[in-house]
Catechol 2,3-dioxygenase-like lactoylglutathione lyase family enzyme (Microlunatus capsulatus), 121 residues
Amino acid sequence: MTTTTRLLSVAVRVADQDRAIAFYVDVLGCTLRTDVELWPGGRWVEVVPPGSPVAIVLLTEAGGMPVAPRFGTADAEAAHARLVAAGVDVGEVLRMEVAPPMLSLRDPDGNALVLIEDPPA
């Protein structure tokens, strides 16, 4: 079994999400897919290039979400166990009402990555 199933999104740190939306949508031609406040100050903004299943997530530092590529995984708990067994720097599985189970980890160079459990088939 593989740990990842697909690339979901790539995050970009921005200073102003509204200004970033204007650039990515009006200048680059992306479509605004998601714009929601998950918690006070935690705004999740996704834009998608035409024809792409992979989103670009526009995040501010103040929002508190990791700026990292997000991958799908079939089972967050199983992925966590495999990563721990492999000696990876990995956090606990996070469970929230507004999102599927997910976990953050770091690659050998210290880059942040996020695994998000795929929805049931």
Notes: The beta strands are 6-13, 31-39, 42-48, 55-59, 70-73, 89-90, 94-96, 99-106, 112-117. The chain has one domain: 6-117. Residues 6-117 form a domain with the 2,3-Dihydroxybiphenyl 1,2-Dioxygenase; domain 1 fold (CATH 3.10.180.10).
